Amino acid sequence: MIIAKNKRLSDLQEEFKSQFPFLKILFFKEAHAKGVASDESLLLPDMKIGSFLPLLQEGEISLDAYQKVGDFEQEMANRFGLYVQVYRKSYKRWLQSWVTDVWTLHEHNRRGMILGDQ
């Protein structure tokens, strides 16, 4: 996934969803601690990254299915200053992954596939 100033958050969300169709990511103004839920400082998906991170060091992040969710979220924060939270579909609701940040993206996606629309 390429992180660039001219990209919208929705572009990143679509790229992420193409790899993990039973997950979604949301972006926040402030970080949350590992193992803790995000607060409600949600950024709007139509925002261009450069509009709130003008000094962004552009780059690419691998969407490794076997990376732990917490590590992915931390890498997005450390490398790009993007505070992201992964959500998983469960029983027709979107749940923040903060309790299960030690699971891999693959495991979350698999469970979302099994439990998503039940």
What does this structure look like?
The protein is α+β, with helices and mostly antiparallel strands and 118 residues long. It has one domain. Helices cover 32% and strands 19% of the residues. It is globular and about 40 Å long.
State the domain count: 1
Number of helices: 4
Rg on CA atoms, Å: 13 Å
Overall pLDDT metric: 91
Quick structural summary:
By secondary structure, this protein is of the alpha+beta class. 32% of the residues lie in helices and 19% in strands. The protein has one domain (2-115).
Keywords:
globular, alpha+beta, 4 helices, single chain, 118 residues, 5 strands, three-stranded antiparallel β-sheet
Secondary structure: elements and pairs:
Blueprint: E1 2-3, H1 9-19, E2 23-28, H2 49-52, E3 59-60, H3 69-80, E4 83-90, E5 93-96, H4 105-115
Antiparallel strand pairs: 1-3, 2-4, 4-5
